[in-house]
Amino acid sequence: MAAVDPNFRVKGTIAAPLTSFTQDGELDLSDMPTYVRFLDTHDIDGVFILGTMGEGMSLTVEERKKIAEEWVKATKTTQRLKTVVVHIGTGNLKESMELAQHAEKIGANAIACMSPNYNKPKDEEALVKYMKKVAAEAPKTPFYLYDINFMTGVYLNTARFLELATGQIPTLRGAKVSSRELPALTDCTYAVGGRYQIMIGTDEQMLTALALGVDVPVLNGFLGGIFTRLKAAFDAKDFDTARKEQILARKLVLERGRYGGGPPMVKSIMRCLGVDIGHVRLPLTDLTSEQEKNLRQDLIDIGFIEK
User: What architecture does CATH give domain 14-236?
Assistant: First the structure.
């Protein structure tokens, strides 16, 4: 059995893609080729699928498998987008184990798992035990913890998880940290001597993350260009330009909040960019046509799109 490369790292700019549904809430993959082309030509190197933006927790296991298969297949035809990280977190151990097995079978580059959020682990030790069982089902695939505590309600110490998991989860390669607490992100970057790769999942902290050595963001697909310019400016020590790009990203985050955030808002932004990725599935609801009209004007006003 081949072991996971100890030097494996996700590289480049990673998007958190949306999942398309019909107006009746049925899975609809007909929009996917257009969406893949958009990402592939807008500075995106890979995808973190079936997470928050992908409405993963609103999908059945079979739907998630089908989507994962399509994304892995899509990377065979893309020019730049080549990495697929499959989120396998569910509300129970057995389904996450099943999804881990499937992700490895289809050749995903890596898997990630968030904590179950109803019957929650009480401490980091319990979380390690849970993730150890999940990761063991994909022994040849790099594994990442997915910490998005403001959504799961699981407020554990990710840096401590990394410390405790060392030696217990052989495939562990790091964590995607979407926690909004900057000290928590900082702690993860030097846990276990900086051994693990940390990816950031908060669009408004990209510049701060770069300063901490976190150079792989998992962001909304429409932000690829912003991050490319931001990182180029950062690397060139042109901090004024980097700051301007981060401020634009922050303005987009604020716009998201004004309209409720999440997949409904992001799908509307994509429509404003000319890419229709369908509807959301209940309990989420689409923006109204009036809201989308107002959103378009707001995006023009902040300089994100042209008239």
Answer: Alpha-Beta Barrel (3.20)
